[in-house]
Amino acid sequence: IITNNTISVGGDYGIYSPDSPNSMVDGNDVSGSSNGLYFGYSSDLIITNNTISVGGDYGIYSPNSPNSLIDNNDIEAIRCIYSSSSDSISIMNNNLTSDGNWGTYDNWSGGIRNSGSFHSLIINNVIIGINPNSDGGIVGIESHDSEIFDNTITISGGEDNMCTAIYAHNSVIRDNVLDVSLTNECGSGEQSPYVLFSHGSSENRSLIEGNIITAHGCSWGMNIANAEIINNTIEFNTGNSAVILEMSSFLLIDNNSITSNAGVIDSWNYIDSLIITNNTITSNSTAINLSNSDVLISYNLIESQGRGIEMSNQSGGEIINNTIVSSNSAD
Fold first, then answer.
1. Exposure of 177 in the CB half-sphere (CA atoms within 13 A)
2. Is the pTM of this model over 0.90?
C-alpha cells in the first residue's frame, strides 16, 4: 500500500514497483521525475486519486496488469496511461493531459493506450491531447475489444498518420464527445489519420452509438468496417469525407445527423450488406458515394450541393422513400 505521499524527485520514476500484484496506490502527488508510476506485470492493481505531473514519458506504466482499476487520477505526461496487454482493466474518471512536441506516429503520445487487451472498461475520462509535431502522432484512446463510454476527448495534432480520438476495433463506443483537429500535414497517412477508427468483424461488430463527433482543419473522417453506427451527431468542418466505409460483411448507418463540408458517406470497397436509413445528411459535395456494395438506402433526408446519391459497379440494392434536395442531379 502506497498512500498519501508527496514525491518530488529527479530520475526515471516517482514510484518504481514492478511485479507487485494487489498493490494499492492512492492519494499520492508525484512530480519532477521523467515518469510517474511503474507497475508492470502487476495484476489486480488499484491506482486511485493520484496527481502525477512528469516531463518525460509515462504517467502510469502498467502493462501486463490484468483485473486492475485506474480511477480518478489527474495526469500530465507525454503518454498518460500505458496499460497494454491488461485484460479486464477499468480506467475511469481520470483527467489526462498530453501536451508536447514529441514522438513518432507509430509510438504516439496521448491519453490511454490499452492495446492487446480484452474486456476493458474505459469510462468518463477527460482527455486533452496536443502534439503539433509533424512526425509525432496523438491518440486519445486505443483499446480494442472494449467498452468505451462517456469520455470527453479533445485532440489537436500535426501528423497525418495518427491524429485520432478513439482507435478501437471490435468495441462498443457510446456517448462520447470527440473533437479533433489535424493542423499541419493534410495527406492520408498509412496508419490512422481518422477521427475515429473502428473495425469490427463478422462475428463481433463494433457499435458506435450516441456520440457527438466534431472535426476541424484537415482531419479525416471515421474509418469503419463491420459496425453499427446509430444515433450519432457528426459535424465535419474539413475537406474530407465524414464516414469512410471499408470492406465489410455488414454495416448499418441509422438515425444519425451528419454534416460535412465534403462528402458524407464514401465507400469504394465491397460490402455484402449496407443499410443507410433514417439519417439527416447535409453535404457540400456528393452526399453518398458508393461502389461495389449491396445496399438499402431508405427514409433519409439528404441536402447536398453535389449529387445526393452516386453509385457505381453495384452488386444490388434498393433506394426507397428518401427525400433528396440537391442543386445537382439527385442520384
1. 7
2. yes
φ, ψ for residue 145, nearest 5 deg: 55, 45
Tens-digit pLDDT profile for residues 130-151: 887 766 788 999 999 999 999 9
CA-nearest of 207, 191, 211 to 199 is 207
Q: How far apart are the first and last CA of the chain?
A: 66
pLDDT digits (tens, 9 = 90+) for 72-127: 999 999 999 999 999 999 999 999 999 876 655 456 788 999 999 999 999 999 99
Whole-angstrom distance, CA of residue 263 vs CA of residue 253 = 15
Rounded Cα gap, residues 150 and 322, in angstroms: 32
The widest CA-to-CA distance across the chain, in whole angstroms, is: 68
Number of Cβ atoms within 10 Å of the Cβ of 147 = 17
Neighbours of 305 (CB within 10 A): 14
Q: DSSP label at 83?
A: -
Q: How far apart are CA 15 and CA 25, in angstroms?
A: 10
Residue matched to cell numbers 492493481: 45
Q: Any idea what DSSP says for residue 89?
A: -
**Could you tell me the three cell numbers for 165?**
480520438
Please, which contacts does 228-236 make with residues 24 or more away whose CB atoms are closer than 8 Å? 228/252, 228/254, 229/253, 229/254, 229/256, 230/254, 230/255, 230/256, 231/255, 231/256, 232/208, 232/256, 232/257, 232/258, 233/257, 234/258, 234/259, 234/260, 235/259, 235/260, 236/260, 236/261, 236/262
